[in-house]
UniProtKB/TrEMBL annotation:
<keyword id="KW-0812">Transmembrane</keyword>
<keyword id="KW-1003">Cell membrane</keyword>
<keyword id="KW-0131">Cell cycle</keyword>
<protein>
    <recommendedName>
        <fullName>POTRA domain-containing protein</fullName>
    </recommendedName>
</protein>
<feature type="transmembrane region" description="Helical">
    <location>
        <begin position="24"/>
        <end position="48"/>
    </location>
</feature>
<keyword id="KW-1133">Transmembrane helix</keyword>
<keyword id="KW-0132">Cell division</keyword>
<dbReference type="GO" id="GO:0051301">
    <property type="term" value="P:cell division"/>
</dbReference>
<dbReference type="InterPro" id="IPR013685">
    <property type="entry name" value="POTRA_FtsQ_type"/>
</dbReference>
<dbReference type="GO" id="GO:0005886">
    <property type="term" value="C:plasma membrane"/>
</dbReference>
<feature type="domain" description="POTRA">
    <location>
        <begin position="47"/>
        <end position="115"/>
    </location>
</feature>
<dbReference type="Pfam" id="PF08478">
    <property type="entry name" value="POTRA_1"/>
</dbReference>
<keyword id="KW-0472">Membrane</keyword>
<dbReference type="InterPro" id="IPR050487">
    <property type="entry name" value="FtsQ_DivIB"/>
</dbReference>
<dbReference type="InterPro" id="IPR034746">
    <property type="entry name" value="POTRA"/>
</dbReference>
């Protein structure tokens, strides 16, 4: 090997060594950056939960869900057990579904879809039970929510669970625009349902043939009868 070749060989070795040092430095730097990022996101108080927002829920549920999520305060946002918060929120009778969103850098947001009141049962002594269309008892309260029909039983009897189910079945069969006009729902001992739309008393009867009953109501209600009996929808009666 000539002196020139030897010099070139040594230069290549030096270049390779320098390249290895640069790659090591870059690798070490990248690891350090990743480690710092993991620390900041997962352990540092810089991204810890400071605020909890509950949106979409009724006031009582808002307070309860806020208390449920309060345990996340001070915990790094990335490490919050959002599944536990969702499970706790959805265990509330008034909550149909819930989603937890990490709103960086320091806010935890619980988005709630509430159950919609469909029927109220006045149990007396200032106690009103409120149900959604699926028959879930949302809450007990002291007054009937605005726009929600109230069910009562014939002759002052107690409204049974079967009576509530029959009334909800009737409401579910009605189109939304008609359902919103329903008031003063009554159920008899045989769970036959009647209700009022404006000044008309509609005798719905049992749960049979709901679609035909809706069609008959749609046609005959235009005449504004005092009573519209669709309990036998093939032979409806008005008077």
């Amino acid at each position: 090997m000539t002196s020139t070749q030897h010099a070139r060989f040594e230069q290549r070795q030096a270049d390779l060594a320098a390249d290895r040092r640069r790659r090591w430095a870059w690798g070490s730097g990248a690891v350090a950056v990743v480690a710092a990022g993991v620390y900041v996101v997962g352990f540092s108080p810089l991204l810890a939960v400071q605020d909890v927002d509950v949106v979409g829920a009724e006031p009582g549920d808002t307070a309860a869900i806020g208390e449920l999520a309060a345990g996340a305060h001070g915990r790094p946002l990335a490490r919050v057990d959002v599944g536990a918060i969702v499970d706790g929120a959805e265990a509330r009778p008034g909550v149909e579904s819930a989603t937890v969103v990490r709103d960086w850098p320091r806010t935890l947001r619980v988005e709630v879809v509430p159950r919609i009141p469909a029927l109220a049962v006045n149990r007396g002594k200032g106690q009103v039970e409120v149900y959604d269309i699926d028959g879930i008892r949302i809450r007990s309260t002291g007054s009937v929510p605005k726009g929600v029909p109230t069910i009562s039983a014939d002759r002052g009897a107690e409204v049974s669970g079967h009576g509530v189910t029959a009334a909800l079945s009737m409401l579910e069969a009605l189109p939304q625009d008609v359902r919103e006009q329903v008031s003063a729902v009554t159920v008899d001992a045989a769970d036959r349902v009647s209700f009022r739309i404006g000044r008309t008393t509609v005798v719905w009867g049992d749960e049979a043939q709901p679609q035909l009953k809706v069609q008959v109501i749609d046609v005959l209600l235009e005449g504004r009868p005092k009573v519209l009996d669709v309990s036998a929808p093939d032979t409806p009666v008005t008077r």
